[in-house]
Amino acid sequence: MIQIIANILIASSLYLLLANSFSLIYYPSRIFHIANAAVISFGAYFVFFFANKFSIPFSVSVALAIVGATLIGLACEVLVYRQMRKKNVPPLAYLIASIGLYVLLQNYISLFFGDDTKIINTAEVTVGNQIFGAYITTIQIITVFVSIALFIAVNWFLHYTATGKSIRAVASNPELCNIYGISSSKIILIAFGIGSALAAIAGILTAMDTSMTPTFGFNLLLYGVVAMIIGGIGSTRGLIAGALLVATAQHLAAYYIDTKWMDAITYIILILFLIWKPLGFSGKRLKKVEV
Amino acid sequence: MEYILHLFILICFYTLLSQSLNLSAGFTGLISLAHAGFYGIGAYTTSILSTQFGFSFWLSIPLAMFISGVISLIVSLIALRTVEDYFIICTMGIQVILSSIMNNWMDLTRGPLGIPGIPSISFFGITLDSKMSFLLLSLFFVALVWFVLRNVSKSGFGKTLLAISEDEIYSQSIGKNVYLSKTVSFTLSAMFAAIPGTLYAHYISYIDPTSFTVAESIFVLSIVIIGGLGNLTGSFLASAFLVLLPEALRFVGMPDNIAANMRQIIYGLILVAVMMTGKNGVKELFTSKAKRTA
Asked: Considering only residues 95 to 154 of chain B, which have any Cβ-Cβ distance to chain A shorter than 8 Å?
């Protein structure tokens, strides 16, 4: 039982990080950035590339990988979304373009690294630590602490710095921001940068804990998206509640039914929420849904 | 020669799939990512009926359409409560649930093992086991579905759907039943998707869940978008293009495993390009929408 609680905590902290990454982009830009899944995978594969192929020291490879994956996220914004924004295309076009970008980027990973399962070799042997009778690996402890620390840092950034406040301002009304001299496209670029870096970190942590395939980012991203929708967009406490609920439901399903039904359970929760509580826990209404 | 016929049959399947999706995505503006799920429902229905109960193809095809229709009706009750981005995510969720059922409900679908030994189609005692005869049968269905969809799109109902895709609130204000029209369009689209499903199962004679995943749904949606939303001929041309693309890549000397990735890279690129420029039939639908949202 303690093992299940420990697993739920680990998974929910990871989902919190993913939801945080996705919502940070979605919040100011209103782009459903599916291609973020490829950024997650790229982060992990870059570590593999630098550390295992070139035997660059591990910490340096991680830093390089985060930078590399962030650049890909920024490229998506600068080369595609920004051009679309200039043309004033309808909102749905962003999502479809994003799916196209995901297919494109994911296949580049397949092309260069192959479709087989890969493991990032860390020098130290990970021995399970026993905490209150639950077996937890070192990387899982790091995941929990890094996710929570980043979550607090991002929220502090959003509420107490000028740039962070600008992001929230753009989220609430981009046109008014432009009038007041805040460049909304610059702010969206910053949000993409931070969001992509968070996604890359989540990808690296997951790949180090288990293993990776070129498509593993997609499921991770969708767990984050589900947590975000359940939580309600733009709500800090909602994100935590969403991540906890998704992780709890998945692990209870894994324990009482079977691990293979975890994905189905996740989406059943999403659909139930979309029916009965389409605005999530926070109940904040999205502009888009009003019409 | 056999291989060329095989490619033509694949083009028929994807034409059926993309044209049926075009009814909901193109004409009504319901961009769905659950289409491969309904394709799969068609395939699984006919496979189970023919291998376990000895149903003939001609009996299982209406049954497959019926089951797909019933499931899509239930799905539409859920999915149509949401709009735009949320609709796509919702249908994607439904697709994952359907794939998950195909993968995990061992008693019904045999899970990842798949269902082997699906018999060939027989036609008044003549078994259609040659590729040529199967191609003719597929062409018959393509013509039938194309004819039906063309007439639906030209009918008053089709006009209503087009009006809904352009301006939902306005359509409602002039007395069109938006919710009912959306439901009918979504359900019809799923019922037509069951046709290529049954054909595919009898053609390949073995099915497993890997043919009916989210990736397949994305592929079918790409065909529709590349061909142009609301453009049936475009769907056919885009199907032909994307089926023949890996062959063309192989022809220029690209190894098989790279060609498979290259095809996806190319269609991803086209998808992004189409969305960025708003050309290729996407324009008509989207410019009118842009005016509303702007």
From this structure: 96-97, 100-101, 103-104
Task: Return the closest-CA partner of residue B43 out of B224, B187, B208.
Answer: B208
- DSSP class of residue A211 equals -
* Matching residue, tokens 């004033």: A88
| CA dist., res. A159 & res. A148, Å (int) | 17
Structural domain A2-117+132-290, CATH architecture = Orthogonal Bundle (1.10)
The C-alpha torsion from A95 through A101 and A103 to A105, rounded to 10°, is: -150
DSSP 8-class letter at A261: G
- How far apart (Å, rounded) are the C-alpha atoms in residues A157 and A238? 18
Q: Residue A212: beta bridge partners?
A: A118
Per-residue pLDDT tens digits for B41-90: 989 988 888 888 877 778 888 888 999 999 999 888 877 777 777 888 88
Q: Is A93 within 8 Å of B278 when comparing Cβ atoms? A: yes
Residues of B with Cβ-Cβ distance to A83 under 8 angstroms: 276
Residue of A80, A91, A225 lying closest to B272 (CB–CB): A80
pTM of the predicted protein model: 0.86
> In the A/B pair of chains, how many CB contacts fall below 8 A?
136
Residue A136 pairs in a beta bridge with A129
Q: Please, what is the Cα angle at B38 between A279 and B48, to 5 degrees?
A: 135
B230: left (phi over 0), alpha (psi -120 to 50) or beta: left
* ipTM value: 0.83
- For residue B276, which of A78, A187, A44 has the smallest C-alpha distance? A78
Which helix (H) or strand (E) segment holds residue A237: the answer is helix A236-256
Q: Which of A27, A28, A33 is nearest to A75 (CA)?
A: A33
Rounded to the nearest angstrom, the minimum Cα separation between B111 and chain A is: 11
Residue B242 CB neighbour total at 10 angstroms: 24
Cα(A172)–Cα(A180) distance, rounded to whole angstroms?
13
The per-residue pLDDT for range B210-245, each reduced to its tens digit, is 888 888 898 898 888 888 777 788 788 888 888 888
What are the beta bridge partners of residue A118? A212
